[in-house]
TrEMBL record:
This is Isatin hydrolase-like isoform X1. The gene is LOC106069452. The keyword Electron transport does not apply. One of its GO terms (molecular function) is arylformamidase activity. Residues 1-19 form the signal peptide. GO terms for biological process: L-tryptophan catabolic process to kynurenine. InterPro entries: KFase/CYL (IPR007325), KFase_sf (IPR037175). Keywords: Signal.
Length: 297
């Protein structure tokens, strides 16, 4: 009798292979580059990058670069850990690894934002999206697309004010608190993300969305880039913060795995259908069936 794990691997691998071939998907970067131009909330410290060594060493026998950088947590494309607004919330190093990967969805409200820079995405926007795309999956990373990423890193345009060091003058879109609650209660999501500086809208006095998601162990992603390149659903998102001890957040590299043929990740895409056809044609399906019988007997 074969070991259960071996049997599962022998059966599952061919099935996964036909739908997850590396040449069947592309990887999209949803992050702005971290640099001296990166935007942060007023009052935070500045980012700095210092070259320690950069040049040929030991009589030009090898090249060596060594640098150091100093950065605030909440700068550029970054993640808010639950500890950011909840005293019992996860610090960055405490976030389970499986909460950093999940199915992604994009709810596009760019048209509504065009006439209202303080627009907040509503539960009705989510319901309209679901009528077309189906229910948001459990553990999803839900992005709100406003088109704001095209303003970055222009400080005045991004915060939408002539006084970007005065947060009381900010005007940019965000999630409505009711929407955050609805997504948490009804869809058990893993994260929310947005292409503006905050998951709360610009004029927010108490950062209610931050409080709601932090208390529910839901992470927030801010200053997300390139959401316009994503389909509404059917892609996988990986969020990679530095595993910072005791951190309340940090800069992240956000990557989206998107199927090239638009069929969604790990579904029967065109390459998968072709491989499945040949599997049936040559009787490989019967081999897999036989393996399964061996596993359970």
């Amino acid at each position: 009798m074969l070991g259960l794990r071996l049997c599962v691997a022998l059966i599952a691998y061919p099935l996964l292979a036909y739908c997850c071939l590396p040449d069947s998907f592309q990887v999209l970067d949803l992050s702005h580059t971290l640099s001296n131009e990166s935007l942060r909330w007023p009052g935070g410290s500045n980012f700095s990058f210092t070259i320690l060594t950069r040049g040929w060493q030991n009589n030009n026998s090898f090249w060596l670069e060594l640098n150091k950088f100093d950065t605030p947590e909440h700068i550029g494309t970054h993640m808010d850990a639950p500890a950011h607004f909840y005293n019992k919330g996860w610090k960055v190093h405490e976030i389970p690894a499986d909460r950093l990967v999940g199915p992604g969805v994009v709810i596009d409200v760019k048209d509504k934002v065009f006439n209202d820079s303080d627009y907040r995405m509503t539960p009705a926007d989510v319901e309209s999206w679901e009528k077309v795309n189906g229910p948001i999956p459990k553990g999803a990373i839900v992005f709100m697309r406003s088109g704001w990423d095209t303003r970055y890193p222009n400080k005045k345009l991004t915060f939408n004010t002539n006084t970007p060091d005065n947060e009381s003058t900010f005007h940019f879109p965000g999630f409505h608190p009711d929407t955050a609650r609805w997504l948490i209660v009804n869809r058990n999501i893993g994260m929310i993300g947005i292409d503006t500086p905050s998951t709360d809208y610009g004029p927010s006095p108490n950062f209610e969305v931050h409080q709601i998601i932090s208390n529910a162990s839901v992470m927030g992603l801010e200053n997300v880039n390139n959401l316009g390149a994503l389909p509404p659903k059917g892609f996988i998102v990986t969020v990679a913060p530095v595993k910072l001890f005791d951190g309340s957040g940090g800069p992240v590299r956000i990557l989206a795995l998107v199927s090239k043929d638009g069929s969604g990740m790990c579904t029967t895409n065109s390459a998968g259908r072709l491989m499945l056809f040949w599997a049936f044609k040559f009787g490989l399906w019967h081999v897999l069936s036989s393996l399964w019988k061996i596993c359970i007997t």
